[in-house]
Amino acid sequence: MRPNRRQFTLMGAGSVVATLSTPSVLSALSIDPSAAPSTAAETPWYRRIKRIGQTNFNEKDPQYGNVEKWADYWASAKVGAVALSVSGPVAFYPTEVPFFHHSSYLNDRDLFGECVRAAKSRGIRVYARMSPDIQWLDPKLLEVHPLWFRRNQDGSLQSSAPNIAFTCQFSGHYSEQQPAIIRELNKRYDIDGVYMNGWPGLQVCYCENCKKIGDPHSELYRASLMDSAADLINLYKKVVLEKSPNNFYSCNLGGGLKESGLDQWKLTREALWYTADNQSRSGLVAPIWQDSQQVKFAHALMGDRPVTAVTASYSRSGHIMWRQVTDTSVEPECRMSQTAASGGIIWYHWLGMEQGLEEDRRWQGPGRDFLSWHARHDKHFHNIRSLAKIAIVASSKSVTLYKAPTAEEKTDHIEGMYSVLTEARIPFDFVHEEDLNESRLSQYSALILPNLALLSDTQCHALESYVERGGSLLATFETGLYYETGKPRPDFAIGKLFGISKVGDRQRSEAKATDPITSVHLQFIRQRNALTSGFEETAWIAGPVWSVPLAPIANPVMTYIRPYPVYPPEAVFARDEPSNMPSVVLREVGKSRLAYFAGDMDATYWRTDNGDLGRQLLNVVQWLIGDNNSVQVQGEGLMEVIAWETEPGFAVHMLNYNGPNAFRGRMRKPVALGNQTVRVRLPREVKIKTASLLRAETNVQFNQTGRIVELTVPSIKIYEVVALEV
């Protein structure tokens, strides 16, 4: 039986969270394009800020602590706020909160207070950076509050560094200690908010409190973590706002498409701010657009509420970090560009005052240059709405609950679609699976469901209504073959929309170890249409690795050729005629265009980079969207295009992803692109007065015919923004 909140309170004094109501599940905030933007006086400061700096302190920093040099740098970078270490296991001010360990190098200093005053004197906001997930190991603390700490199964402490251990969420360290620190900060200092690093997330703990809840790997335990996280977020938010209603509280919810282990949708319903703390690419083969993707996904959760993404200025490659050595590649600039382009707040980060202000100063120039440039053009980064006409539906449940047929990343389906849209330079957004309402979907002419395997009946009705209103859909593989709980459905939940029915379970077309060597499915072209563009000289193309067998349909576009041996050469030929099993189904119903791929074309494309599959996906996307694409950029190179209506007019952001090592850990150096022809279809009749290139900092000639604006960008290094002012 799952413990309720009252039962948690019986686990011992000081060991549990406060009892508060959980956040209500509300639709993400939508943007009314007809509404005039709020003035700065009417809006909390954090709703307008666009640049943040952070020098994360280490325990030895009070010994050096050149506060004026620190503040001068961030002022020169034109940041609007700094994240300032309070911190987690170490206090950088003379705290009176019991068991909050003073830095061993603090002596008589108040490093935190000095920095607050120095930043404020330069007009820079300050919010406190805390880290409740770790605590200094004081022998007296262990005696008085042993339940504050996470334990291994053998009872030993879970430690991250000498004299520091991880804390348990189900303890007074979270429900009592953290509020006490926040209240002390509120009382002593002119702070503007609080950010909590390292929390919330999944923990595995075998302390006495957690043993009463159950197996830390169980769904029961995870649900209990969700309940307490929701309560704690409300508690911290309430305490922070005691200082001022214009302050903010934020925790670390930046799990992205792969989730952090907890339900981000529920935890963000009443969130004031979202921090995406993926400071650099998480793997050697992570996509170059990871930061842009993170911010887009966060916007799907947050609507128009603030989203910030942290960019590391130190060196990292995959999971290897050189945390006090500057990354001299263009990766940090590339990530800051992606954050700016996708509508996020740029957060530039270094570790250590002495290490960053004396020992290695190479990080300072790139940060100052980009951030001060961004500040000069600040007005163009205040967005009203996206101009994208197509969206990918992102499903957390189809990542966490879906039992995939392979151990490869479940998000590969989304990455495949992300890649195709980026290669085609089609602006697109994410829509969260919990937000499929008419208001949210009304701006999009097409939705992509990349193996959206888990669908509730309510979500199915929402998609059916979307099609009835003229919206188009593209779905792949096992979309709708499972209930929202992960339980299999007997057939496709939205099969009637596509006119499909399955006749068997998913199947892998590659050979098993005991089978002869075989190829994957091939696809046989039965009809020539928009989907077969580029395939004029072939009767068959490559196919996916996994597929769902479909019942035959009338006049299929393509069907499967059954796999056959690939070795020896003498045996490489089809044994059977092409089957009548569809690999692709296309339909037009009124104004709606519907496409279904029976295979995992999107994931197979991402994993194999097969040109046929990429071309096939691109063809169907272009057929789906028709002439509804609002922005077209013609030219050479791999480029992500993002377009916004802004407060002064419109902006088209172009991110150049061409360069050595672009898809292996970090972007070393960009390969500049030449002429790019930009064509924008404005969402309404309006006269453009000026067009400028923000990175080049020059005006550009343009032609306007009705709602169509055309111009040429002569070159792009890493990033360019076409700003159209009305």
TL;DR of this structure?
With 726 residues, the chain is an alpha/beta fold. The chain folds into three domains: 5-376, Aldolase class I (TIM Barrel); 388-625, Rossmann fold; 631-725, Immunoglobulin-like.
Task: State the end-to-end distance.
Answer: 61 Å
Q: Proportion of β residues?
A: 15-25%
Class from secondary-structure proportions = alpha/beta
Counted beta strands: 34
Largest sheet: 9 strands, mixed
CATH T-level topology of the largest domain = TIM Barrel
CATH superfamily of the largest domain: Aldolase class I
Question: Can you list the strand order of the major beta sheet?
Answer: 16-15-17-18-25-24-23-20-21
Number of domains: 3
Q: Which CATH top level class of the largest domain fits?
A: Alpha Beta
Gyration radius over CA = 27 Å
Quick check: average pLDDT? 90
SS field, number of helical segments: 20
Give the CA-based shape: globular
CATH architecture of the largest domain: Alpha-Beta Barrel
Poorly predicted spans:
1-40
Helix share, percent: 25-40%
